[in-house]
Amino acid sequence: MDAAAPELAWHPHRPLVAGLAVEGRRLYPWVADHASGVITHYRDVSAATSLTAHGGRQVVPLAWIGRSGLALLTVPEQEEPPSERPPAPTILEATGPGFINFAPSGDALHAAVSVHLSLLDVDTRNLRPLTPPLVVGRVVASPSGRLILLDHLGGEPPESDSHRLPWQVSIVDPTRPSRVAAPAGSRWAFGDSDVIAWRDRSAGATTVRFREVDGGAAACVRQSSEAAGSWLPLWHRGGPAFLVEEVTGAVRLAMPDGNLVVTAAAGPIRIGRSEPAGDPSRPGRVAFGLATLNRVGLGVVDLDRLDFTAAWLEASRTVVGPPRGMWSVLDGDTDQLVIDRDGALVRCHRQGVDLVVSETLLPPASPSRVREQPRLDGPLVRIEARAGTGMLRTPVAAGERAGAPVFLWLRAASGEKFAPPPSAPATVVGAGHPVATLDLALEWPEDATVASLHGQIVGIVRQALAVLTADAQVPVVVGGHSFGATLALYALAEVPELAAAVVHSGCYNRTLTWGGFQHERRSYWQAPDIYREFSALLFADRLRRPVLIAHGADDANPATPPEQAVDLYRGIVAAGGTARLVLLPKEGHTFHYRENLALLTEEHCAWLGRHLPTPQDSSR
Predict the structure, then answer these.
(1) Model pTM greater than 0.70?
(2) Average pLDDT along the chain
(3) Phi and psi angles of residue 287, each rounded to the nearest 5 degrees, phi first
(4) 19/157 Cα distance (integer angstroms)
């Protein structure tokens, strides 16, 4: 059996876990009883994923309902093929200004990936569809296990951004035939009743709104202006609260009366991608996974006492770095956390402020290929240059080789909303090299000029270099993903102190994205100098230091097809530079497969060893 689902679905009350398996060209569900060790295969059920991995979200398309119900996506029965007809001509007409997008239409997507949301009784093997065929993006069960929150395509795309998919949110009750619409961005609030929560960004402020599904109470909480990352809504005794990641790296508990409890932590904390668990004996006590880029932990918040505690597992090769999935369990005095990291399932239990490994449920599939990840939990340094702002997270020099190159990973931030550290450090660099991240919040008005943007980018990168090389003159390699790749190459061309570049999934010829890119909303004909300035292919002759280019061979992003990477590779070599091209099979705009990540890590390390030897290497 080959596992296919990016995450697993753990039953909140029974010792059951569900996943998807692939056999030939078919998907089917399986359920494992991790108490008895029995696995049940449902090969007669044709499962599907639809667009649940759209945008690299890796959402598991499974959810537990009640005691034995498993909500999953199933393939509709095939209709009779239409009689053959002569092919019709394709005729298009449009009047500008406007952006022409040849992405698949809603009808084409529906024909290709529409699915039923169905309910499988894992005890009786009875299967029944709950919805007509839909293009589905997310399936999430309510904390009570009674309802399902469903993201699906429907309606018309917004006029301001007509090339985006028109997602809708619906609430599905398996006991009723109809769906109920919910506000965009809705998610379940964990608590003692079925409540949805969503962010309302109207009136210049962000408010988290709550509403009971059964027509009961409604409430709202003003969000802190320092909020930056994930958020987890809670509902207890008819009152709202939510946990949110702050720019400072802490997790904050926000209440309607402004009462805030801030976690104390040495380094940035992220709320783990997991469903929280509740304590049946104490409804106000909720547990959830926590992660830094080197540790995982179990957080427990008590809404009655306004108390927060956390227990941490010391870093090890098995579970270091942000896990793929975490499942928390509260049962009386036993607090547990199950961690999925690189295919290894590890059960931990709490002892005071520590998490201790109870047992390894599944060992890692390829231990020899799982590398220790770089540390990214150093202090934050705020940088300002002209109108732009940068947030630099410096590396922690523990365990790295002296004199090893430092990676400076660039990312585009939106205004003051600096993003959390990368969630997949294996795609940044391999073991043994310190990594710093630099979020660039560029001031990019509607009348932005090349000079204003140049001053911001170069100024912020130079200041970051001064911080990174203040104690030792080590080589600094700049890198980035997507638009971050463009910023990295721009910096390499303009800042001679940078030693090399590593770029992933970038767009290297902006003159082909005529209708705008990233922060630029003008067309190519309105601001041709901006488009040329951020086209790395046009300044390939100034990329005089080595460049490693990695790209998914199946990148479907219309701005970043793999041909862009090939053209940049050819351009750098034609201009006399040094470049290496890595095309990763079956990868899209973001990289997910463990084998490809391991290969990419090896490529990073080998390439650095050839072009940027450390003092120890050069003395051998």
Answers:
(1) no
(2) 78
(3) -115, 150
(4) 33
